[in-house]
């Protein structure tokens, strides 16, 4: 039989399934070569691999080259037995197989009978010997013991070599993209927030949507040149524990509260109360056999109950003012409706709508700290508004061996973060999210069939649903009962927004309720071991659905502005008159029902988008010689453009200057607002009339990803390895950042109308009639657009590694890692700035595409380049010590801000600078150590069983850009523009550098961090030459420590008492200084600490382990 070439493999792959976003396998392999005492290969030797926990055995034979290659093994401990006639049987005990790993154990047989047995030591698995992949494996035993702040895996991912930022749900590992760079899967199930291109997360508490740390078997992070079965710039595979022939389990409880928390560095004792905190996490798991050697289970529960907040001051009306009595104010109030003063400052005719809303405004609870400009109170309400997080997670898993050649796995996961009260900086009565939670559901079914020792197939179905919940307070309040002119009805109600000068605003956020994002995946992987080739190919399809229900915004609930103008004195009143009042009182205007301005808007339309990911791959791992392995693969991906149920899409054609509304059969969506269309005649067309057919965005079908690598074992014992590789990878296009903006948020699907009182004095707007007529709409609205031929980001990766196995199961790795990204996305790139900075009557007058203001575009023309040097020392768990230490030197340059736009939209290269949020120097250390104290007899329960665990990080600061404020008129005659000229039309954001001036000359973290005089405003109507992200912020130092005491209750049962100290040394890590050089009083000053390294906090916990 001829060898199966890669080309024929791929042809077979393409015929296999119409498939994509492959369910990435977490299985690994055991490989090696069997030789006789002379070093000659031993063929047809019988190889038996037994899972120590489940007793499941896989058998095979060596090839003519003496090679054995046992594929598709789940992460676990294995015993390997090798037997051949004329040789003693070799036993290799407890080979630890990590996630997606290939562990090599070469065996030299000794002469003898097969009845005699020889114990062979397992090779250390601290280095990678057979492929070019760079990554890290975080063992479950270490994860459970390390002091992870938040007890979620995102904290552990920060400490992976190559990680250069602190984004919890989407870390930028080894130069991956800011968005959709890291792809997560749990037991092979994709668990990504497909709308936003990151891991599925919970509002304000990061990755609590993922399984609890206690049931994690291992986490593998593949950060450079992954094999062809993996997608994304980085792949994060999470494997949960499975049952075995013995029962195991844990019950645990952890608590953190305010008593164990230190004050923030800038919060001085006696002046600021420590923020409230009470965090309780408790749960457990149990696993074991249902049917010995055949069926096993795991069930886990994890609960988090957390309350945290901080005190805030607000300004509310006094009780007397609520009743209309303003006699305590220092100024005489007038009634603009009558043009006379209000006798005694007593309002007797309170508007009934104002009275109804007044019931939601809290009462003052402390004395006023002063007098406002209008003569009213200030800071007379003190409230601590707490976030209230209730998380409940349930995990179930069953593994069943149908027979020796067929195994099934079924699993399910349910995470319920509901309700999730999230404060929004407003009083407790309104404005917050009464529910900002989530519901995450996942399920999977996997079947592995072994057709022969060298041929197997894995078919996989998974379901993943992540529902974001956004529900504002007072959702049952229907504002149309007070203001029937609003565009109701509303699915979700809320208080209208009431803005009052010198008072805390009133209002709710509305929301959209439950917004499900669903992915169903079908995948098939086929593996064939043929001689020295391990061939693997597969295909899959993801069916994705993003639903956002009709959303209620603050504008659709109604916005009312009160300034005090209608209780100010009448025009012409002399300033010497005792009744003269220039400001009036905004709350008095509110009680009288006289707003200065109002706004109403239609609710956001509901959208239902579907799209698919199709992916195919072929991979050949070729053992060219006993020392050289080549890895060759090819992957093809397609992400289809979304379809919306009602065709709700519009885009902008920059070649014609017209907005293009998606049409089918000449008809546009029924959700297009007819009023909006009538207000902007001649500015739009339909997609069919524009020659675009029914698609306003095209599908990128050019995503071929070759992968090639090698691993050369420089020494016969495979303890020194030289590895390297190259690969092409693609980022996905998150619909929540691109396609949804050109749908739900775009013209012509929203109508916003504004009203302003037109009289010089007497009110023309009232709460009784706040929306007279049609009002005004923006003459120049902001719209969204997407590059029609958008490309998925193309990430080229390459690396070269020298790796050395060390004694005591340790290993050292030194790697060069490079990345180049093209077609990186700008998600809000404004394509409608004036092309030349020059004096203008208005910025709008210089915009090239009229009548539009900003055209915020998803543009895929960005560039990024990363070079890294990584050095890593790994010591797997053993002899009481686990250690993983790494240093990464990172040089990352790009022209793509994470958010916002460039300084000069017509010169993208002008924004080439240090990548946002990244650190140049990164040292990480994670370690656990069992203290070697042993005593027998008296005192052993006190002395024995102590251990330490720590997480340490030392990082240089993150980059930031100096900025300046453009004055309203020019302050000099530079740039050929006269002094005193209006600066409208000048939109530069960065200053010039002063030649020879060191911005770090001051460099005091307690004073001026940088010297603002090292920069100066550029010449009029020119761009500054200070580079983007040219300044580097303060460094980060983190040291988290855990002390644990293990006590044996009785045989097989242990109790663990543990104290965690996060930022144990309470080392202050400072935030980014004020970067605006125009504000001389604050430029260069640091006024806050870094939220990534908060002040010290203690956590006490206990576990019962059996």
Q: Which structural traits does this protein have?
A:
1106 residues; mainly beta; Immunoglobulin-like; 22-stranded antiparallel barrel; 57 strands; disordered N terminus; membrane; siderophore uptake transmembrane transporter activity
What can be said about this structure in brief?
It is a multi-pass membrane protein. The protein is mainly β and 1106 residues long.
Give a structural overview.
The chain is mainly beta. Among the domains are: 22-120, Immunoglobulin-like; 962-1039 and 1051-1106, no CATH class. The chain contains 8 helices and 57 strands. The protein has a 22-stranded antiparallel beta barrel. A 5-stranded mixed β-sheet has the order 3-2-5-6-9, with no helix packed on it. The chain has a 5-stranded mixed β-sheet with strand order 10-15-16-11-12. Keywords: Carboxypeptidase, Cell outer membrane, Hydrolase, Membrane, Protease, Signal, Transmembrane, Transmembrane beta strand, Transport.
């Amino acid at each position: 039989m001829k060898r199966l070439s890669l080309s024929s493999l791929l042809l077979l792959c393409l015929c296999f399934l119409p498939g994509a976003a492959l369910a990435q396998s977490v299985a690994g392999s055991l490989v090696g070569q069997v030789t006789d005492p002379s070093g000659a290969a031993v063929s047809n030797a019988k190889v038996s691999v037994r899972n120590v926990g489940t007793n499941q055995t896989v058998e095979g034979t060596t090839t003519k080259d003496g090679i054995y290659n046992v594929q598709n093994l789940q992460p676990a401990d294995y015993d390997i037995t090798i037997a051949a006639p004329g040789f003693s049987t070799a036993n290799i005990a407890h080979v630890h197989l990590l996630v997606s790993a290939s562990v090599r154990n070469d065996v030299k047989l000794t002469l003898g009978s097969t009845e005699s047995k020889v114990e062979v030591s397992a090779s250390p698995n601290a280095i990678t010997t057979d492929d070019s992949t760079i990554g890290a494996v975080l063992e479950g035993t270490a994860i459970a013991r390390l002091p992870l702040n938040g007890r979620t895996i995102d904290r552990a991912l920060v400490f992976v070599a190559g990680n250069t930022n602190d984004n919890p749900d989407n870390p930028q590992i080894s130069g991956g993209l800011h968005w959709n760079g890291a792809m997560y899967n749990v037991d092979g199930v994709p668990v990504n927030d497909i709308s936003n291109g990151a891991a599925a997360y919970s509002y304000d508490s990061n990755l609590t949507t993922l399984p609890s740390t206690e049931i994690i078997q291992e986490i593998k992070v593949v950060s450079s040149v992954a094999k062809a079965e993996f997608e994304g710039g980085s792949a994060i595979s999470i494997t949960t524990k499975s049952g075995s022939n013995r029962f195991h389990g844990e019950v645990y409880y952890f608590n953190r509260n305010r008593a164990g928390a230190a004050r923030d560095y800038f919060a001085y004792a006696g002046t600021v109360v420590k923020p409230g905190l009470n965090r309780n996490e408790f749960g457990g798991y149990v696993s074991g056999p249902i049917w010995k050697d055949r069926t096993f289970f795991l069930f886990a529960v994890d609960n988090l109950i957390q309350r945290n907040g901080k005190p805030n001051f607000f300004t509310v009306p006094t009780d007397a003012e609520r009743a209309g009595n303003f006699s305590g104010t220092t100024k005489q109030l007038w009634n603009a409706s009558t043009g006379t003063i209000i006798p005694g400052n007593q309002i007797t005719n309170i508007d009934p709508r104002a009275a109804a809303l007044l019931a939601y405004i809290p009462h003052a609870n402390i004395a006023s700290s002063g007098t406002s400009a209008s003569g009213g109170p200030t800071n007379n309400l003190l409230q601590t508004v707490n976030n209230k997080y209730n998380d409940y997670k349930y995990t179930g898993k069953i593994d069943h061996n149908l027979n020796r050649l067929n195994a099934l796995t079924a699993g399910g996961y349910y995470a319920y973060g509901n309700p999730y009260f999230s404060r929004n900086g407003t009083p407790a009565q309104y404005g917050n999210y009464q529910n900002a939670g989530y519901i995450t559901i996942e399920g999977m079914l996997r079947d592995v069939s072994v057709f022969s020792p060298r041929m197997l197939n894995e078919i996989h179905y998974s379901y993943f649903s992540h529902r974001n919940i956004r529900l504002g307070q007072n959702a049952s309040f229907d504002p149309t009962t007070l203001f029937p002119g609003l565009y109701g009805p509303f699915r979700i109600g809320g208080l209208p927004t009431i803005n009052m000068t010198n008072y805390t605003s009133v209002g709710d956020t509305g929301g959209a309720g439950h917004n499900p994002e669903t992915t169903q995946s079908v995948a098939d992987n086929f593996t064939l071991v043929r001689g020295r080739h391990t061939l693997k190919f597969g295909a899959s399809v993801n069916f994705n659905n993003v639903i956002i229900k009709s959303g209620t915004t603050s504008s659709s609930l109604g916005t009312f502005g009160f300034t005090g103008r209608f209780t100010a004195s009448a025009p012409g009143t002399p300033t010497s008159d005792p009744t003269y009042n220039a400001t009036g009182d905004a709350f008095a205007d509110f009680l009288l029902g006289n707003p200065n301005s109002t706004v109403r808007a239609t609710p956001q339309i509901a959208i239902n988008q579907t799209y698919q990911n199709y992916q195919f791959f072929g991979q050949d791992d070729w053992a060219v010689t006993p020392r050289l392995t080549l890895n060759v693969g090819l992957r093809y991906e397609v992400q289809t453009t979304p379809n919306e149920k009602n065709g709700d899409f519009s885009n902008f054609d920059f070649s014609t200057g017209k907005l293009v509304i998606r049409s089918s059969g000449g008809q546009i969506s029924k959700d297009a607002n007819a009023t909006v269309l009538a207000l902007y005649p001649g500015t739009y067309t339909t997609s069919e009339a524009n020659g675009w057919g029914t698609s306003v965005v095209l599908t990128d079908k050019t995503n071929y990803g070759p992968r090639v690598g090698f691993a050369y074992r420089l020494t016969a014992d495979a303890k020194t390895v030289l590895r390297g590789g190259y690969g092409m990878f693609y980022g996905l296009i998150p619909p929540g950042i691109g396609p949804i903006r050109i749908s739900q948020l775009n013209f012509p699907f929203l109508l916003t109308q504004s009203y302003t009182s037109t009289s010089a004095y007497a009110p023309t707007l009232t709460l009784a009639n706040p929306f007279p007529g049609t009002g005004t709409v923006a003459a120049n609205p902001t719209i969204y657009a997407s590059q029609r031929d958008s490309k998925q980001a193309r990430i080229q990766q390459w690396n070269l590694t020298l790796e050395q196995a060390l004694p005591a199961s340790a290993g050292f790795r030194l790697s060069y890692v490079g990345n180049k990204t093209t077609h990186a996305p700008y998600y809000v790139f404004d394509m409608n700035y004036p092309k030349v900075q020059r004096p203008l009557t208005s910025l709008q007058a210089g915009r090239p595409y009229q009548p539009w203001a900003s055209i915020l575009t998803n543009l895929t023309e960005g560039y990024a380049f990363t070079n890294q040097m990584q050095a890593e020392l790994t010591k797997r768990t053993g002899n009481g010590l686990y250690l993983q230490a790494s240093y990464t030197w990172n040089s990352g340059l790009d022209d793509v801000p994470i958010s916002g736009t460039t300084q000069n939209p017509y010169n993208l290269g002008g924004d080439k600078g240090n990548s946002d949020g990244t650190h140049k120097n990164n040292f990480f250390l994670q370690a656990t150590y069992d203290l070697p104290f042993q005593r027998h007899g008296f005192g052993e329960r006190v002395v024995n069983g102590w251990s330490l665990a720590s997480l340490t990080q030392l990082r240089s600061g993150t980059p930031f850009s100096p900025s300046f404020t453009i004055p309203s008129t020019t302050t000099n005659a530079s740039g050929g523009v006269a002094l005193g000229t209006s600066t409208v039309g000048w939109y530069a954001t960065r200053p010039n550098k002063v030649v020879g001036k060191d911005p770090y000359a001051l460099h005091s973290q307690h004073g001026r961090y940088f010297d603002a005089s090292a920069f100066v405003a550029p010449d009029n109507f020119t761009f500054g030459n200070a580079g983007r992200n040219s300044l580097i912020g303060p460094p980060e130092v983190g040291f988290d420590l855990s002390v644990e005491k293990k006590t044996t209750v009785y045989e097989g049962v242990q109790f663990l008492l543990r104290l965690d100290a996060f930022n144990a040394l309470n080392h202050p890590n400072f935030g980014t200084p004020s970067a605006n050089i125009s504000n001389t009083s604050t430029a260069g000053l640091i006024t806050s600490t870094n939220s990534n390294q908060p002040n010290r906090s203690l956590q006490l916990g206990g576990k019962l382990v059996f």
